[in-house]
Amino acid sequence: MDNTTLPGLIGYSLIACCVIMALVWLWSYKIKNAGVVDIFWSYNFPVIAIILYLFAPGFEPRKLLICSMVVVAGLRLGTHLALRVLKHLHEEEPRYAHIRKEWGKNAERKMFGFSRCRLYLMCCWLSRFLSSP
């Protein structure tokens, strides 16, 4: 896979984030709290931004500016969510509890798939900003 093509950049970003999110999903499955996924979903923005900054072609000052903004925003959002979610780690957020109830016995499998879809969209969206000339 060529690391400078858009599909290559998306592929590398997806691999990195899928590994992170698979580990987080295992943790959320163990504690029965899907809210922790949001924390690391937010922290994946800086991961993707750094990967794209390092490997994407483009005007270096522009890449640095956009990467810096994404890293700051992702760390800020992730930390905000971490402070909120970790306060009630033993109790799942109502929206996830509702989804879990609606999806029944297939909830964990569907939540895993849902998080993969979110990652793909995130990688595609960010790669367009950071790999443009």
Write up this protein.
It is a single chain. With 133 residues, this protein is mostly helical. The chain has helices spanning 6-31, 35-55, 60-86, 94-103, 107-130. Helix 1 (6-31) packs antiparallel against helix 5 and helix 4 (94-103) packs across helix 5 (107-130). The two termini are 20 Å apart. The mean pLDDT is 84.
* Percentage of residues in strands: under 5%
Poorly predicted sequence stretches spanning 5 or more consecutive residues: none
Note the overall shape: elongated
- Please give the number of β-strands: 0
Mean pLDDT: 84
Structural class by secondary-structure content: mainly alpha
Roughly how much helix do the residues carry, as a percent range? over 70%
- First-residue to last-residue Cα separation: 20 Å
Largest sheet: none
Order of helices and strands: HHHHH
Determine the number of helices (DSSP H or I, runs of at least 4 residues): 5
Round the Cα radius of gyration to an integer and report it.
Answer: 16 Å
Question: How are the elements arranged and paired?
Answer:
Layout (H helix, E strand, L loop, with lengths): L5 H26 L3 H21 L4 H27 L7 H10 L3 H24 L3
Helix pairs in contact: 1-2, 1-5, 2-3, 2-5, 4-5
How would you summarize what this structure contains?
By secondary structure, this protein is mostly helical.
Keywords:
5 helices; mainly alpha; elongated; 81% helix; 133 residues
